[in-house]
Give the backbone structure.
Amino acid sequence: MKKKIENLSMQTQLTVVILSVIVLAFGIILYSGYSGQARSFAEEYTSSTQTILEMDVANLDQYIQGLRIFCVQPCLNVSVYNSLLKRKPLSSSEISDIKQEIQSSYHSRTDIRSYSITAMNQDLCFERNAGVGGQHILSTPVKDTEISRPYIACGSNDKYEYLAPPDSEDVFFRYYHYLIRLRNREPVSLSYVDVDTTQLRLLMKNHQDYGQILCLYNSDGELLYSSSEDIRNQEEKEKKQLFGLHSDVENVNIGGISYLALRRTSEETGIVLLSLLPKSAWDDRARDFLLPLVMQIAVITICLIIIVTLMIRMITIPLKRLSYQMGKMGEGDFSPTAFGGGCKETCALTESYNDMAAHINELIETNYISSINEKNSRLQALEAQLNPHFLYNTLQAIATEALLADCQEIYDMIVSLSANLRYTIKGGELVRLQEELDYVDRYILLQKTRLGGRLEVTKKINPKVNLAVIPKISIQMLVENAIIHGMPENGAVLHIIIRVCMENNRLLISVYDDGKGILPEKVKELNDIFSGKSADTGNSIGLPNLASRLKILYQGEAGLFLESQGDQFTEVKMELPIRKRENENV
């Protein structure tokens, strides 16, 4: 370690020491400010939330008192109350009076989902439910299991009431209350009300910041509501652990997450309202308060960094330039030249790099030009073997004789062959797309003469690209490849589809056939040759030669791609940048 430090320059050592001191000092400042803000937020949150919880508990007490009064309303109706006291079976008119009272009471409030009165002396339950029966009031026999728990809970409460957990998501809680006969305190009826979430939404308005979780328990420790699904899904024993906190302010852990728990208990109804705040919210709030401090420190840090940067600038800039040029070389670009400066050593290193890059670039260009010349020589040698001018003149003479002999089919064949020969010997590497397509049509005419009905060709050409220029004899080569390698051996018809379209300002040409297909390993070998991943063996001048021509003509902006699936199809795609001749628009 000591030896490594000694090998560093004085400027580097000084820079490291200064930056280390700056980082340490600012780290201490930020930590102190961060801790102070976190404590301040915790105290502020505790105070404000306790006040809000007190108000919420008072509002809930008032709300429950309203439900208590609501459930006592049947006593105000003398006929209904007498019917509830009656032990003999009720008459139809008495039942009708009870139902009418329930219907009237149900519509007197807008927050009720269900309302039920159980006549204890009749073992009969009257229920108005928003979700069952519509406007009808159901009267059903009472099962002991349905009222045993509420009955016991109401009996043990000095206000004869019991708050039960809801049985559906659209219910806040179920409120039970039974009426007693004052003379002997005998239960007359057991009522319950399912209230909707209107009061819950009002309650949650004050508890939606910083990821708070709100829990509501009844006096027996049963969970009536929790905004956390994880708490709602806990076992009953785990739910009651939060209810049994030792103090009104306590730290708890739920599912591996630390929370600050604040509790308020109603002295009137015994309900417990619990607010849980994740301690991570303190950190988030502290970060918000630290922003001005961070901005000040950032300004100071930037000034110091500028000073330190100026100290090491003379050494690092030349090395960065050299590193950038090495990266360009890795991408295959050997033309840029790195500039030296800084000190003697960096200048010498830059000069050596420039010499090496120039030498490598020269070798690559020499090798590439040699490869191009070799392919052009092979193509020119093949074309020279045809002696095109002699053949063209001879074909013209034969066509004339065929026309004089009234052999129209032979005349058409010879004219097509003659036109194609003229097309091949004319100069230029690039031709209009329409010229190439005419050449392909004549080639197909000649092939159909040989193959008869075994060849069917379809063209799908976008007329907007007819003026685009493409390499000569490129599409014909793709069609010829499809006929040679795709023609079925069983005498079936070979279908070929030629597509030309424009996409993203590029020309897309494909030749599809439903012939024999090509083996997967051969497809991979050809695609590797097309993309330059492997070298051409030089055994043919077909598709590999076309790929080489595209690379030369378009300097790597064009591509050839082969796709095939055995006995199903073969498709060769050629992608070119759109070019046009002067005074023409594509």
